[in-house]
Amino acid sequence: MIRVGLGYDLHRLVEGRRLILGGVLFDFEKGEDGHSDGDVLLHAITDALLGAAGLGDIGSYFPPEDAKWKDADSADLLRAVWKDVQAAGWSLVNLDCVIKLEKPKFLPRRDEVIESIVAILGVGKNQVFVKAKTGEKLPPVGTSEAVEAQVVCLLESLR
What we know:
The protein is an alpha+beta fold and 159 residues long. It is built from 4 helices and 7 strands. It has helices at residues 40-53, 58-61, 74-87, 110-121; strands spanning 2-15, 19-21, 24-26, 30-32, 90-100, 128-133, 146-157. The chain has a 5-stranded mixed sheet with strand order 4-1-7-5-6. Strands 2-3 form a two-stranded antiparallel sheet.
């Protein structure tokens, strides 16, 4: 059996926060405003995996009203979810990710982000791809007010 999952996240960009995409820190004057570290890409991946496995969503796993998740490392959250997805009998076929941001430029760091995701999940580099789009100067992404991520994953049953 195979299952598809779709993940999406959007965070406002604000001063005084770090910009983290796929577990990689970017040098930028703004960062994601979120309950955890705000990594939209890892959040979207987490939701895609949970949805494909039928295990819920990131908000049910890590409720934002729970103080223990405040400023949590999204890589740790993804690792915990991935462990549960695997325990439920699923393996990853592939992840296809889109990150939408105007600035900073993503392409020079793409390989680093892919390697980070591969390391978090313990999968092959050929199973993860990330591409970037700008907001074409249109709000909120194109005016650097927000960053957005969309992810689709394909899981295969091991049972």
